[in-house]
């Protein structure tokens, strides 16, 4: 009788334990007091794209940080900055389009001398078409490989978003040069794009030698870049610190209410460490790896190029200037001469900003062996 009772009690206890384990495993984690759940896409639950062999690294689930509403002056901030503060800690978004073999795997990636990393929104189709034909063409220059990726988020919602994603999907299939993550494109989210790219680089092209990181409306003289990088770093190159572009020193957050506005709630300090204008800069593979390490701990900042400066500073490194990088456009000495005269561009590394058709013509002209210029050192 006693034995039966003990057996019964033990069975009940076992059932209770099993039930407890089951509920633990199947119930969602209790949301903590000050967090709200984001939609599935942001949580990384989305089905992985068929193109990716290895699932991209998923970060912790991304919650809205509602404590920011108690930051002084929060309710007076523009909506996009409130949004930035809610999700500032979210650095991981799922990949929609991946290129696992872009650089020929970990070992092969040391054979890529210059990887062109071009920030391009889905709708900038015409720019990508022209870049593939001009300075971003995948090729060897002086025996050194140049490869290209466009990095993108998503635009629009609903049907428009699906249409734009489809466009990138077709380009990705046909040209093998599009990386896309599931986050909304915006000026502020450019920082996110950079951080996600650095993580991708570490996974897929860890030994790449140099990178050009730039916009899709620049003129980048990629032949000159390869020669410059090869000259300054020698063989094999890319294993030392290098970060060059148009140097911004002694600047600080813009406090006026415009596109670049950064409120004190986001950054209290009135100064930025030195950085290079985000239109286009060159960096070594080594420096990209350092930046990726730093970006894991440096809190996101709404201005992407200033953020890179913060990550460099965190690592005790400095960017440098190069007079061949002119994000503001060249200062052409006289209004009588054609500002698109190829003679101004044949010696530069990079100039901002051009219409696709201007790039198309210019790239052809600077390669014209018959190009005659009045002097070989004319650009200002
Ligand atoms: C904001 O502060 C108030 C008063 O201190 C507090 O009751 C509330 O819980 C806080 N809200 C959040 C989301 O932290
Ligand atoms: C949420 O915001 C508060 C107030 O700005 C901040 O102190 C806290 O570190 C944030 N939490 C996370 C997870 O970023
Ligand atoms: C940045 O992307 C996230 C994820 O798509 C989105 O929730 C947020 O609104 C975007 N931020 C801005 C300022 O557009
Ligand atoms: C980045 O961090 C990893 C792990 O902490 C470390 O092994 C590696 O040396 C770091 N890379 C650079 C370039 O600092
Ligand atoms: C310009 O060209 C001449 C003759 O080819 C050469 O001697 C000179 O060093 C060049 N100057 C510059 C600044 O490149």
Automatic annotation (TrEMBL):
<feature type="signal peptide">
    <location>
        <begin position="1"/>
        <end position="27"/>
    </location>
</feature>
<keyword id="KW-0472">Membrane</keyword>
<dbReference type="GO" id="GO:0008499">
    <property type="term" value="F:N-acetyl-beta-D-glucosaminide beta-(1,3)-galactosyltransferase activity"/>
</dbReference>
<dbReference type="GO" id="GO:0030311">
    <property type="term" value="P:poly-N-acetyllactosamine biosynthetic process"/>
</dbReference>
<dbReference type="GO" id="GO:0016266">
    <property type="term" value="P:protein O-linked glycosylation via N-acetyl-galactosamine"/>
</dbReference>
<dbReference type="InterPro" id="IPR002659">
    <property type="entry name" value="Glyco_trans_31"/>
</dbReference>
<keyword id="KW-1133">Transmembrane helix</keyword>
<keyword id="KW-0735">Signal-anchor</keyword>
<comment type="similarity">
    <text>Belongs to the glycosyltransferase 31 family.</text>
</comment>
<protein>
    <recommendedName>
        <fullName>Hexosyltransferase</fullName>
        <ecNumber>2.4.1.-</ecNumber>
    </recommendedName>
</protein>
<keyword id="KW-0328">Glycosyltransferase</keyword>
<keyword id="KW-0812">Transmembrane</keyword>
<dbReference type="Pfam" id="PF01762">
    <property type="entry name" value="Galactosyl_T"/>
</dbReference>
<keyword id="KW-0333">Golgi apparatus</keyword>
<dbReference type="GO" id="GO:0000139">
    <property type="term" value="C:Golgi membrane"/>
</dbReference>
<keyword id="KW-0732">Signal</keyword>
<keyword id="KW-0325">Glycoprotein</keyword>
<keyword id="KW-0808">Transferase</keyword>
<comment type="pathway">
    <text>Protein modification.</text>
</comment>
């Amino acid at each position: 009788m006693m034995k039966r009772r003990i057996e019964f009690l033990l069975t009940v206890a076992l059932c209770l334990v099993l039930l407890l384990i089951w509920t633990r495993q199947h119930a969602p984690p209790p949301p903590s007091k000050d967090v709200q759940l984001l939609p599935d896409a942001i949580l990384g639950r989305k089905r992985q794209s068929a193109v990716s062999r290895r699932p991209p690294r998923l970060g912790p689930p991304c919650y809205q940080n509602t404590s920011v509403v108690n930051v002084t002056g929060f309710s007076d901030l523009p909506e996009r900055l409130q949004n930035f503060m809610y999700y500032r800690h979210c650095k991981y978004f799922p990949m929609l389009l991946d290129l696992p073999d872009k650089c020929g795997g970990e070992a092969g990636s040391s054979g890529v001398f210059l990887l062109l990393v071009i920030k391009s929104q889905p709708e900038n189709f015409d720019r990508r078409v022209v870049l593939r034909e001009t300075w971003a063409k995948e090729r060897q220059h002086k025996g050194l490989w140049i490869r290209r990726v466009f990095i993108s988020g998503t635009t629009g919602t609903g049907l428009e978003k699906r249409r734009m994603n489809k466009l990138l999907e077709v380009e990705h299939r046909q040209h093998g040069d599009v990386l896309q993550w599931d986050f909304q494109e915006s000026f502020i989210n450019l920082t996110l794009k950079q951080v996600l790219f650095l993580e991708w680089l570490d996974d897929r092209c860890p030994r790449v030698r140099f990178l050009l990181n730039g916009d899709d409306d620049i003129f980048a003289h990629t032949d000159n870049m390869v020669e410059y990088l090869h000259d300054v770093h020698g063989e094999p190159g890319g294993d030392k610190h290098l970060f060059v572009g148009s140097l911004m020193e002694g600047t600080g957050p813009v406090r006026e209410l415009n596109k670049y506005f950064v409120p004190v709630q986001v950054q209290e300090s009135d100064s930025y460490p030195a950085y290079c204008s985000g239109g286009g800069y060159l960096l070594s593979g080594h420096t990209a790896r350092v930046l990726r390490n730093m970006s894991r701990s440096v809190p996101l900042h709404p201005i992407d190029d200033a953020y890179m400066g913060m990550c460099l500073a965190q690592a005790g490194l400095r960017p440098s200037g190069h007079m061949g990088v002119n994000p503001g456009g060249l200062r052409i000495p006289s209004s009588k001469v054609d500002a698109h005269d190829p003679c101004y561009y044949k010696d530069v590394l990079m100039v901002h900003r051009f219409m696709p058709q201007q790039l198309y013509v210019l790239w052809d002209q600077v390669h014209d062996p018959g190009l005659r210029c009045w002097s070989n050192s004319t650009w200002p």
